[in-house]
Amino acid sequence: LTGFVGFANLPNQVHRKSVRKGFQFTTMVVGESGLGKSTLINTLFNTTLYPPKEPLPPSAERPQTVSIESISADIEENGVRLRLTVVDTPGFGDFVNNDESWKPIVENIEERFDSYLEQENRVNRQKIVDNRVHACLYFIQPTGHSLRPIDVEFMRQLHTRVNLIPIIAKADTLTDEEVADFKARILADIAYHNIHIFQAPTYENEDEEALAEAEEIAGKIPFAVVGSDKIVKTPDGREVRGRAYPWGVVEVDNEDHCDFVKLRQMLVRTYMEELREYTNDVLYENWRTEKLLSMGV
Ligand code: GDP
Ligand code: MG
After folding, report:
1. What is the ipTM metric for this complex?
2. How many CB atoms neighbour CB 119 within 10 A?
3. In a mutational test of the pocket of ligand 1, which residue from 27, 28, 38, 39 has the highest number of ligand atoms less than 8 Å from its CB?
4. Considering only 12-16, 172-176, 274-278, which range has the smallest mean pLDDT?
5. Is a pLDDT exceeding 60 seen at residue 62?
6. For residues 46 and 60, is the Cβ–Cβ distance under 8 A?
7. What's the pTM?
């Protein structure tokens, strides 16, 4: 069951319809290198991602400062097709001078908007490929203190262009109490700096179960995650995805150990459609309006 992504089980009919046609979902990971981005992506989709057949967008060739890579995989579950793309930004934070290291990332997001706009303007709009970034996982170093200035800067540059989902990386390096304190401080910082993170919408006519799920997910943000694509044996003999320590095993899929399950639930089950909608209706629309205004149209 752990390998099951869950997008084929999207709850309502609207989801089912768009899902049956097959659809595209793009997640971007941002954060210092070494924080476990690649590991988490593998954990999240429990699949090996292959390089795309098409050439990478121009920004992928950018040298040094921040090199951006995009990998895609076609996943099928219960007859439902999902083209999943992950945009990795491996370099940031490794350079002595990090001023404006967010720029290539924002440019990459906007180039994807550009490509979508160009397709919308074509005569034949039958086969629009949606390569826009629908969610951005922002990896926060597990310092246990508060957001660093570079985190604030990055998030402020990104939040008008992408659904930001903050996560605490390598949460197994913090105690439960440290995680709780850190989460509170991160949320306070985010509020103080007016950073807009993705808000899970709630609908009035939703049933109790759905409301409870929405509240539970919202209550976990920023998700404290542990990634691992290895199977380890627990002291009581179970085989689980996790990280083994002399004092025990941290289980990726155990909700008492970390928020990985909740993060996956939010991304690929509960809010995939909302993330796509908000990207299209708000983030892309705002960008488009700004662009047209700046062109004097
Ligand atoms: P990236 O540079 O952000 O893509 O990081 P990687 O996924 O390559 O991981 C860097 C190192 O951190 C590797 O040795 C991973 O095994 C380790 N790592 C990844 N996720 C975790 C985690 O959740 N907890 C701990 N303790 N280590 C992790
Ligand atoms: Mg990596």
Report:
1. 0.99
2. 15
3. 39
4. 12-16
5. no
6. no
7. 0.86
**CA 174, CA 279: separation in Å to the nearest integer?**
33
What is the phi-psi region of residue 78: left when phi exceeds 0, alpha when psi lies from -120 to 50, beta otherwise? left
**pLDDT, position 54:** 41
- Peptide bond before 142: cis, by omega within 30 degrees of 0? no
In this structure, are residues 25 and 84 in contact, taking their beta carbons and an 8 Å threshold?
Answer: yes
β-strand partners of 135: 27
Cα 202 to ligand 1 centroid, rounded to whole Å: 34
Say how many C-beta atoms besides its own lie within 10 A of residue 65's C-beta: 15
Is the CB of 170 inside a 6 Å radius of any atom of ligand 1?
yes
CA distances from 198 to 83, 162, 163, 167, 278 (A): 22, 9, 5, 12, 9
CA-closest candidate to residue 26, choices 100, 94, 108: 108
What is the dihedral angle through the alpha carbons of 237, 238, 243, 246, rounded to the nearest 10 degrees? Answer: -20
Is residue 250 lining ligand 1, measured as CB closer than 6 Å? no
The pLDDT confidence band at residue 115, using thresholds 50, 70 and 90, is: very high
Contact 126, 181 (CB under 8 A): no
* Beta partners for residue 74, in sequence order: 83
- Give the strand pairing for 69-77 and 164-168: unpaired
d(CA 202, CA 61) in angstroms, rounded, equals 41
CA distance 207 to 156: 35
Mean pLDDT value across residues 124-147? 91
Amino acid letter at 121?
N
Strand (E) positions, the chain? 23-30, 69-77, 80-89, 135-140, 164-168, 223-224, 231-233, 239-245, 248-251
